[in-house]
Every structure is written in structure tokens, then in C-alpha cells.
Amino acid sequence: MIEYVCVVFPYVTTILLISTIYAVFALGLNLEWGFTGLINFGHVAFLAIGAYTTAMLNLGGCPLVLSVVGGTVMAGLFGLLLGIPTLRLREDYLAIVTVGFSEVLRFILLNEEWLTRGPFGIYGFDRPFQDVIPCQYYNISLLILFVAILIIVYTSLEKLVHSPWGRVLKSVREDETVPAALGKNVFSYKLQSLAIGSAIAGLAGAMLALYLQYIDPGTFKPVETFYAWIIVILGGTASNKGTIVGALILWTLFSATKFINPYLPFTAHQMGAFRMIMIGLLLMLLMMHKPEGIFGKKEELALSD
Amino acid sequence: MNILSVQNLKKHFGGVRAVDGCSLTIKTGTVMGLIGPNGAGKTTMFNLISGFAKGSGKIIFKGRPTDNLPPYKVAQRGMVRTFQIPHALTKMTVLDNLMLAPKAQAGERIWNVWLRPQSVKTQDIRIKEKSRDVLRFFEIEHLENEYAGALSGGQKKLLEMARAIMIDPSLMLLDEPFAGVNPTLSRKISEYIDELRESGMTFLIIEHDIPAITRISDRITVMNAGKIMTEGTPDEVKQNRDVLNAYLGDEG
Ligand SMILES: Nc1ncnc2c1ncn2[C@@H]1O[C@H](COP(=O)(O)OP(=O)(O)OP(=O)(O)O)[C@@H](O)[C@H]1O
Ligand SMILES: [Mg+2]
What we know:
heterodimer, A: mainly alpha, 12 helices, 2 strands, B: alpha/beta, 2 domains, 6-stranded mixed sheet, 4-stranded antiparallel sheet, 10 helices, 38% helix, binds adenosine-5'-triphosphate, binds magnesium ion
């Protein structure tokens, strides 16, 4: 029994750690897409910017806390940078530009070795409280820290989306004409939403770097953006609570497929595909029976009519 | 004093001259009716004046040009318009539709939401009370927690007007406010417009309901085929031969 707990417990801790990181990551997308209607198909770029900035600042001698703040802010700034030329145009431009940006960024990370060490990746940066906490309690302490970050992000976002600011976002999401006719600067609200959403993704990137202790361009493939979308749709678009639950469900499922792995005649590569098929099936079932997601509101479904 | 003066407005859609050199002035605190047959260019005039469409010509609102401003800046200066086909925010509640409207809310700034939650809340409560008063007037207060998507066509029309009133504009452009509204309520709205005008608000109203528009307007402008046919008091307009032929027929 004791042995069993000792095996399972670290495993659960790992799942929770990853879920927390992806919950924060997807909360950023939920602000952009769920509450504002912005289509960001390159969300992973901001995860990468956060992770690399944090790691590089820290390696350059910056204290860890400041490095994380730097990573968050940098991702937010890039959100602004991408938003300024695209958010005045039709909405599909943002989708195109963000997807392009995330791929270009990955190539830069891969090829500008003087800056990013290219395919060798970055490691050797600090871990939070690395000297004070004994090894066997390390992951659980990290989890407590990450949960605390998640709670702060979640409550700050909840405050925002239930404020007059959030009300304007929802009006932008549905019909820009209305807020414009009422004197709201729609462009500015979209820009704020994109910048905050990107900064949150940057924070998730910093968390990911701290957890993995090693990042390389391969960590930031386009599929990560796709995971964020799955999480938001699964949990319920425009529900922050749903987004967190969605992240938990996705990573629990991913891990569960690992447990049944030995009983299936698949290679590792086939297993990856099998996982995606399972997730796809789950999503299809959900969309058929509860298209608004687990915690979403039917009346606010972003894609209806 | 004139609150609005537009000179030589033009807007073409390909070969269609929707608005073809229209000029118009409105005195502060009056109601101007805008009538004319379908396709005369009335809604296009609204779009130009409110900044939603760009054409050529001059628009002076409260003494300053607005023809190069985006719609939200025009609205911030105190001009609000409604749409012929109502734009209810169907995925928000009726109450939220109204609470969205007031200008310069403290809670529209992120740092206020985080750092001054108390004053944001106090202001929001005041806005909520005002919204409820307005909803009560339009007799849709029982629907405040419904999603606006659940409203009937006429109720959406009322919601749109209620929402516009929430920003305390100095000039209101109403595009067919009485279309699809039941007669008792339509009379009540006329009286309300009268009341608001007494308090200094100015109106430009497009309407096909001739008895209603002649009752509330101080002056009426008649458009036809992109041009202004005539302008005058309701009585002058009703007796105008051309207007009778082109638009009113026996009704006048
Ligand atoms: N976006 C557009 N593209 C092309 N043509 C347009 C557009 N908007 C209006 N028009 C044309 O301009 C003319 C004037 O239309 P407008 O909507 O201003 O008429 P209206 O006076 O409001 O009519 P109604 O009383 O039927 O509402 C019409 O011939 C219409 O077909
Ligand atoms: Mg019209």
C-alpha cells in the first residue's frame, strides 16, 4: 500500500504540475477568444517568448522572480506588437498573422544559435527555492507555487471579466458595431485583451521553463496552441473555471493513455496518434451533446448564429 | 444655435447615388424628422453623420468637424444613433446591454478594476439603478435577466433605444423608432421624446409613420433619390405638392 502511494503520488503531482501550467496558458487564450472573440492560432509563440526570456534573463544574472516578470512582460509586449497592425483589420488577419509568427519564431529559436543556443536548447537556469527544499519534496513544493500562481491569475481574470471592462469585451465579441456606436474604442479593448492574454501565456512559459529545467524549440510546436484551444472548448468557452477543468481533463486523459499503453500493440509514435484520436473522439462527443463545453453557457456560445 | 450642420454630403455605391449633395441643419433642442420613400438615402445619411460610413462633405457637430472621426469618437462627443435593424447584443442580458452604454465608466479601465474595486462597484450599482429605471419606462423591466436573444423584434427595437438613452447624448439619431412597436407604447415613446427635448436633447428621427413623426417633429426634411426635396414645418411639408406626389399620396 505504502509503496503504491509512493509510486502514484509523484505521478499525480506531475500531472497536476503540467495541468496547472496549461491551465494558465489556456486562460490567456480564453480571455482572447472566449471573452473577446479574437482568433489567435499562434498562442504557443507567447509561451515560447515567456520561457526563453525567463531562462535567458536568469542566465544573464537576473534574479529568478524578476526573470519571470520579464518573461511575462515581454510576451505581453509582443502581443501588442502583433495586435497593432492586425486588430484594425478583419478578424481573420489576426489568425493568419499569429500562426505565421509562431512558426517564424520557432525558426528563429532554432537558427539564431548565438542567442538561443538553437537546437541544443537552454538549461542551467535557477529553480525556485532550489537550495532550501529537500529533493523529495521538490515537485510538491513547485506544485504549491504553481497552484498559487494559477489562483492569482484566475481571480484577477474573474475580476476583469465581471467588470465593466469585461462587459465591453463581450460586446466586442458579439457585434463591434454596438460598442462603437456607444463610444467605446473597440481597437483599444482588443489590443488590451490580446496583450493580457499573451502576457498570461508568457507567464505559463516561465512556469514551463521552471518545471522542465530545459527548453528547446521543439518544446513549442504548433500543437501546443491546439492543446490550448482544446482545453478552452472542452471546459467551456468564456468560462475561466471551465478552462482549468479542461486542462485537468486533457492531461489526465493523456496520462491515462500512458497507463494502458503496455496493453496496446502500438509503438510510441502510434501511441501519440492514438491519443489524439481519443481526444478528437471525446471532443466530437462533447460537441454533439454539449456544444457549449462543460461549463460554458449555451446562450453565450461564440459560434452560434 | 445649431447642434448639427451638414453640407453637401455625398455617398455613392457604384452607380447608385445614395446621398447626393445633401445639406441640413438642426437647432439645439428641437426634433427634426427625416422622411422619404424606401431607398431615398435616409439610413445612409445616418451612417455618414455618425461616422459609420465615409463619403464627402462637411459635418459640423457642436461647432467642430466630425467627418474624419471614427464612430466611437463621434459617439463620445455626444451623438448616439440607433439602427434600423436593431443590434441587440443577443448573448448578453437585457440589463447588461443597457449597463454597457454609459460613457467613461471607471471600471472600463483595468487598473481601476484591480486597484479601486470599491469605486467601480459603487458606480456600477448606480448604473444598474438607472438601467432599471429606463427598462421600466420601456416596459421591459421584467426581462432584465433574459438574454437579449430571447426578445421579440419589437422588444429589441425598444432595447436599442433604451440603450442609446443610457449614454445621455446631446443628439440622438433614431432610425425608425416606431416600426414594429405597439400603438400605446409608440405614443408613450413620443411623449418621452417630447420630455427629453424639453430638457435640451436634440433628435433626428427617420420614420415612415407619418402621423407619429408629424406629431413630434418641429421640422421635417424630405428626401427622395439621394436628394433633399424640401424642409419645413410639418404643416408646410404636408401641403407640399411634390411631397404629396412622391411620397405621401393621400395620407397627407
Ligand atoms: N452598403 C451598401 N451597398 C450598396 N448600396 C447601398 C448600400 N447601402 C445603401 N445602398 C443603396 O443606397 C440607397 C439608399 O439606401 P438607404 O438604406 O439609405 O435608404 P433608406 O432611405 O434608409 O430606405 P428605407 O426607408 O427603406 O430604410 C438604396 O438604393 C440602397 O440600395
Ligand atoms: Mg433606412
